[in-house]
C-alpha cells in the first residue's frame, strides 16, 4: 500500500482495490478470502467498505476494456467483451461499520462495466 503521504492516482486505486491476479490463496473459502483481501488492500482501516469486487485477471486484460477489449456503454463507461473471474465481497449486516469487518463472498464469472479515464480503468461499476 502506498505511504499515507503519497497521492494515489485513480488508476492505481482501481488496481489496489480491484485486481487480484493471480488470485490470492485459492484454498480460502470466499468469506475468508474477502475478510483477508479487504483488510490487506486497505479497505477496512478506519471503516468497513460496504462492498468491493476483485477481478482475477491480469492487469493488461482489464486495461484492454478501455480500448479494443470493451464496448462503449455511455459517458466514460465501457463493458468488457469477455467474462472475468470475480469475487464479490459484501459486508455482513449492511451499512458502514467500524472494524473488525466481516464479509461474505460470492465467486462468479461475468462481463464487467468499468469507467475509463485517459484509456485506463479508474472505477469498477458493476458486473453485467
Automatic annotation (TrEMBL):
UniProt-annotated location(s): Secreted
Main location: secreted
CDD domains referenced in this protein's UniProt entry, alphabetically: RNase_A_canonical
Annotated Ribonuclease A-domain domain residues: 7-128
Gene3D superfamilies: Ribonuclease A-like domain
PROSITE patterns: RNASE_PANCREATIC (PS00127)
SUPFAM superfamilies referenced in this protein's UniProt entry, alphabetically: RNase A-like
Transmembrane region(s): none
Keywords annotated in UniProt: Disulfide bond, Endonuclease, Hydrolase, Nuclease, Secreted
Similarity field: Belongs to the pancreatic ribonuclease family.
Protein name per the record: Ribonuclease A-domain domain-containing protein
Species annotation: Phrynosoma platyrhinos
Lineage summary: Eukaryota, Metazoa, Chordata, Craniata, Vertebrata
Amino acid at each position: 500500500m502506498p505511504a499515507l503521504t503519497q497521492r494515489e492516482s485513480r488508476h492505481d486505486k482501481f488496481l489496489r482495490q480491484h485486481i487480484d491476479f493471480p488470485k490470492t490463496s485459492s484454498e480460502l473459502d470466499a468469506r475468508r478470502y474477502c475478510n483477508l483481501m479487504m483488510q490487506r488492500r486497505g479497505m477496512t482501516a478506519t471503516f468497513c467498505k460496504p462492498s468491493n469486487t476483485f477481478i482475477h485477471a491480469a492487469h493488461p486484460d482489464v486495461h484492454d476494456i478501455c480500448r479494443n477489449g470493451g464496448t462503449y456503454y455511455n459517458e466514460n463507461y465501457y463493458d468488457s467483451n469477455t467474462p472475468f473471474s470475480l469475487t464479490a465481497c459484501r459486508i455482513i449486516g449492511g451499512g458502514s461499520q467500524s472494524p473488525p469487518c466481516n464479509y461474505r463472498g460470492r465467486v462468479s464469472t461475468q462481463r464487467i462495466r468499468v469507467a475509463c479515464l485517459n484509456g485506463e480503468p479508474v472505477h469498477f461499476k458493476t458486473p453485467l
